[in-house]
Amino acid sequence: MEPLLARTPSPRAPAHPRYVDWLRFGRSRRGRPLVLLAGLIVEAAVFVPAAQTEAGRFRGVPGVTAVAVACAVAALCGPVAGGTVAFLAAIVFMVAVVDEAFASGLVLVLWPAVGVFTGLLCNRLLASEAEREQLVARVIEAERRDVAGRIVGGIGHHFNNQLTVIMGNAELARLGLDEDTDKPTVAALEALRAAGERLAGITRLLFILSGGRESAVGTRDAGAALRALEDQLAAIVAPRRLAFEVAAAACMVEIEDGMFDVLVTELVRNAAEASPEEAPVRVTLNCTEAEVVLEVADEGPGMDPAMRRHAFEPFFSTKPPNASTGLGLPVARAVAERAGGSLALISTPGEGTIVCARLPLAAGGRLAREPGGESSRRLPESI
Q1: Which of 68, 184, 311, 365 has its CA 20 to 30 A from that of 152?
Q2: In terms of Cα–Cα distance, which of 283, 249, 252 is closest to 269?
Q3: Where are the domains of the chain?
Q4: Tens-digit pLDDT profile for residues 351-366
Q5: Cα–Cα dist 246/293, whole Å
Q6: Which long-range contacts (CB under 8 A, 24 or more apart) does 165-172 make?
Q7: Under CATH, domain 217-360 is a member of which superfamily?
């Protein structure tokens, strides 16, 4: 029987046209001066012999060549560079080649206009190609998440059932043991139960990452939820110090039940794993007129640009093998995006990392907090 994944190959982005590589090279920091220098050399090679040749021998050839070179420069370097080269070529052409030079001043306008138009056209081509690549990347990511969701959804339920059996039997076996006489067995059963809980947690993170929905969306006070997690977060970062700063006003967000706790816990755990023991982990929550801003900062080694590019990829980690699942940041971003928000990463080597989660403020803004910390959303009256 043919395997499932053999019938659903991983999608690949179609290759872009070759000219796109040339256009991007010409607009790069390295390619632009090279193209400009080459264009000026070609223009000089055209006009110098043309100016020294008997009148009429070169009629029309220098002008056509100059415009063609200017258009090529504009296509590769952009409209400003192309228009400038065309304008300089027009001045040299009028002075050195054409009889009664300034009687044909139209080239001062026409040539730069052609160069600028060519550059703008190529800019639009590059913008269209960039949009196409973004759309293709989104489609590929959506297909990957769909495949991952089907796999996780298909096995996650059964996997959790077996974990429940293992953990339950471990608890039952422990009930019949004496804490003093059977200490090694009790320790082994406790380790088994703890391992089962960790595996159940990883399964839950994979389910969230694949787009599965665990519970209904509700409105809750992010500040109250964060304050309720303070002791748990302090235990996660120990022996490091937890620097906690939460806005006093109620900051209402619409999010799935329990997902805000997952977002905060994963960010704090990730920061704690990156921080030295003597450095604090800072958690800050503020509420603006439009959004709730959660920041988790550490004083770890930071990330270079290559690490930042891969930071949100599942299972990517800068830590040693078996030290991390590599799911913290990807899961946190998935939770933030499912709540209509975003997640940003600010990191510099040697200066630590700041992860900023922005969640839209729920309809109604900053509502008054009730004793339970949750908001009481007024339902529409029956018609």
Answers
A1: 311
A2: 283
A3: 18-135, 152-209, 217-360
A4: 889 999 999 988 765 5
A5: 10
A6: 166/192, 166/196, 167/192, 167/193, 167/196, 167/197, 167/200, 170/196
A7: Histidine kinase-like ATPase, C-terminal domain (3.30.565.10)
